[in-house]
Design the sequence.
């Protein structure tokens, strides 16, 4: 196994406590794959692969009955992608948001890893629990918050947690992409973004959002 893959696996929370020898054994089971921006990584019928994201962002989305795209989750490097169970069939697609590099492993081999290294199962449960909690928070927000509040929460969540109040979302987001994350129309998203800009709460420079975290947090806490 090359050093690049070993370093990447070591930086993934799931494998961070394994020894170099164990990582070397595991690394031989993975295959490196590259995807261009907008390229499909997994389709609903792809049930035999587990993916670890090394570089870039990946989105999970579904298509509504009227053909609209709704993004259910957006993840980055170090995240696990794929269906761990075949019990339920979902119409969920997984696509590269940026040019991506991923490590792919057959599901059966991944199950064998969990059996061989039981500590990985506990790590995996913890990781999946965190993602489940985030998705539950999104559902609550969808049911109880107005569009303005949901947009502000999304902007805050996309920013990096820093001590300084002024932050920038380093990744680029179009209004269309944000609307798909929020489950609303692009026109409504544009109106809400313009309202925040007029109030001086955010700035948008080359599709990157700059905002004062403390001001936005105070606004949604009212």
Sequence:
């Amino acid at each position: 196994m090359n050093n690049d893959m070993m370093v990447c696996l070591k930086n993934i929370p799931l494998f961070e406590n394994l020894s170099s020898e164990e990582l070397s054994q595991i690394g031989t089971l993975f295959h490196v794959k590259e995807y261009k921006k907008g390229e499909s990584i997994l389709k609903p019928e792809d049930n035999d692969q587990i993916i670890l994201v090394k570089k870039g962002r990946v989105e999970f989305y579904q298509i509504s009955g009227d053909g609209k795209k709704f993004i259910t989750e957006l993840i980055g490097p170090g995240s696990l992608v794929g269906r761990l169970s075949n019990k339920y069939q979902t119409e969920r697609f997984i696509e590269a948001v940026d040019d991506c590099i991923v490590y792919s492993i057959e599901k059966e081999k991944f199950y064998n890893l969990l059996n061989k290294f039981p500590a990985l199962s506990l790590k995996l449960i913890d990781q999946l629990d965190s993602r489940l909690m985030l998705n539950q928070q999104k559902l609550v927000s969808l049911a109880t918050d107005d569009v303005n509040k949901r947009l502000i929460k999304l902007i805050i969540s996309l920013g990096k947690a820093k001590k300084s109040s002024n932050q920038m979302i380093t990744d680029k987001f179009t209004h269309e992409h944000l609307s798909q994350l929020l489950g609303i129309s692009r026109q409504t998203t544009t109106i809400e973004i313009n309202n925040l800009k007029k109030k001086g709460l955010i700035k948008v420079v080359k599709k990157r959002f700059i905002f004062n975290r403390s001001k936005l947090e105070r606004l949604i806490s009212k």
Observations:
- Residues 16 and 54 are 14 Å apart (CA to CA).
